[in-house]
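Hi U.,

Before I forget, here's the chain from the pilot set. I'm dumping it here mostly so it's searchable later in email.
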Amino acid sequence: MIILLAPLLVVICVIFSVRAGNLPGPRGVAGWIAASCALVGALGWPLAIGVWPPDVLSGRTFVLASAASQTGDRFQVVHYWNYSDFYTTELEHLSADGTLKVTQIDWDDTKQWSCEVRVIDEEKKVLITFPSEPEVWEYRWDLGYIVAPYNRKDIPFMLNPRRRTTLTTPSKA
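Structure:
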C-alpha cells in the first residue's frame, strides 16, 4: 500500500505547504505545469514500476491458469499483491485425496496477467510458463517441489527441496 500512496502523499504535503505559505508557490504557467506533472507522476508511478493499483486496493487473489491430471490431481497458479513488495505467485496442488499443497513460485514477482500450465502425467510433472519470462518452471508432484529454471540464479534457496515454503492441508475424511 505504501508503494501506491507514498508519492501521492509527498505531492499532497507539498501542495498544502505551498497553500499554507511555508513554501513559495508556483509562479506563472510553468509552475502550474510542473505541479500538474508532479501530481500525474505520483499517480502514474505505481504503473511505471509494474503495480496495478486495483490489486493493491482490493487484495484479491487471481487464478492465472489451472489444469488437471488424469489421476484427479488439480493444479492452479494463483497471483496476489503481497502487501510488502510486489506480487506473490504460487502453485496450488489439490491432490486426488483432498490434500492441498501450496508452493511459492516467486514472492517478489511483477504483475502477471496469465500463464500456461501443462500437465505431463507420465512423469508426474507440471510445466508453468509465463508470457513475460522465457524460462519454464517445473513442479514435480511426486517429489513435492518446484525445480528452478536453469537461468534463474537470483533465487538459489527458494526452490531448494530442503528449504521450500509449502503449506499442506490434510484432507477431511
